[in-house]
Amino acid sequence: MDNRKKLLTAGFLTLIAAGIGFAVRGGLLGIWSEQYGFTMTELGQITGGGLLGFGIVILIAGAFIDVIGYKRLMVIALACHVVSAVMLFAATPVFNASGKDSVYLLLYISMFIFAIGNGICEAVINPLTAALYPEQKTHYLNILHAGWPAGLVIGGLIVFAKGSVGWEVLMATFLIPVVMYGAIVLKEQFPKTAAQEGAVSYGGMVASLIGPFFLILLVAHACVGYVELGTDSWINKITGKILSSAALGTTLFIYTSLLMTALRFFAGPIVHKISSLGLLLVSAVTGALGLYLISVGESVPFMFFAATVYALGKTFLWPTMLGVVGERFPQSATVAMALMGFAGMTSAGLLGGPGIGYKQDYYASKYIQENAPETYARVKAPNENNFLFFPAITGIDGAKAGMIEDDGAAITQEAAIAGSEINDDAFSALKNQFDWWGANKQFAAEDKAPVEAATLYGSRMALRMTALVPATMAVLYLLLIVCFKAPKDEGDANVAEAAAGSEL
């Protein structure tokens, strides 16, 4: 098509919007924890809600692309992005009026709707790009997905403005690329899918995917979602904790995202040298090493080195996995890529974000209970957190930890602004926090060091355990390389799929 560059640009912009939203949200976790009293597990559930919705919608939208068409789905995504942004501005009033549980629900729903928009876009732009550039699928899918780390860079820079601008405004900045991609989507014509053109039946598409090769790819991509998106939900906060500087954590995040953006434009030549599966194997091993190095790092130079290794490991994973699917199952791209996206995003949402948050709470609470039980009794959250079949734990209350860290400066200022109205029902949550500080501020000097040590220990151990995921991926990629031979060329794959489609 003559407009394929414009359509590729629109897809690129959707990922920039998703990246900005993701990065800004990651940079705001500390603010949400201190302002609303969330534990790490609860923050993980909010970020995970966004990723979970992403995955579910990719699957649903992918199933209906051949019926609804690319363009109509993109218009629906546009509406979802706008609605999600509008909801954010109600968060603080809802908290003041109804407390922590209500604002938790609001943020979760807003992130979920944002994820619906992202999921629809992801379901559309991957098979669309493969169809627009059939001769170089993996190369152009990597270029397309350079939009994601580019959005992370922009979002990371936006996070530096926190404190001077309301967090709601910062979070809503993703609307800028949304308006830009919307202008292209509403104006341009989109191609038809292979099924719409009658080249393959829907049953043929599904039948071509049945087999061990695609099943292993699904499991591997679930691991990719966990280690890339699940970890990136937390990496900004964790590295900031390790370096005792939120600004340095954000700087590292921006640096690794810039590195990813640049490298994804060079995937084609690398794949030509070592094959797509070879690139995935090297990436998984490098990613596992990078996560472990970050978990043991202390100095700034070493952390930049460790972050570089981690970035090199994760750069090519997601788009190259899609490239493998596009090469192996070219006429089943809409269904195959939807299933892959569902596996990756659902894993990130159900396992990655919440799981890494749970691991932080688990190791932090275990550490502080063993080393400072009296401090733990004062700072523990009022509720237990659960994750899958793992034991319920009571983590450290983020608001209490924040008050100890700044010696009550923020809560005292907020209480002063509220004045006599702090006793009204609308400020019940704020009053509870202020009352806790009044009753426990004499222990702040004693509690500060144990709380900091516990949260740092929890952060390190969470990353160290997460490094096992890319190690598992490396085993799966090696299995694919050893046990399955690639088709001689893409034409062979097309012939095989056409035959499958004609039989059904």
Provide a descriptive summary of the structure in words.
The structure is a single chain. The chain has 504 residues and is mostly helical. The protein has a single domain (4-365, 458-503), classed as Growth Hormone, Chain: A (Up-down Bundle), CATH 1.20.1250. The protein has helices at 4-27, 29-36, 40-68, 70-88, 91-98, 100-132, 137-144, 147-159, 167-171, 175-187, 202-209, 212-242, 246-263, 267-274, 276-296, 300-314, 317-328, 333-371, 373-379, 398-405, 409-418, 428-440, 444-466, 468-483, 490-503, and strands spanning 385-387, 390-393. The protein has a two-stranded antiparallel ribbon. A hairpin with a 2-residue loop joins strand 1 and strand 2 (390-393). Helix 12 (212-242) runs parallel beside helix 18 and helix 15 packs antiparallel against helix 23 (444-466). The chain is globular and about 70 Å long. The two termini are 30 Å apart.
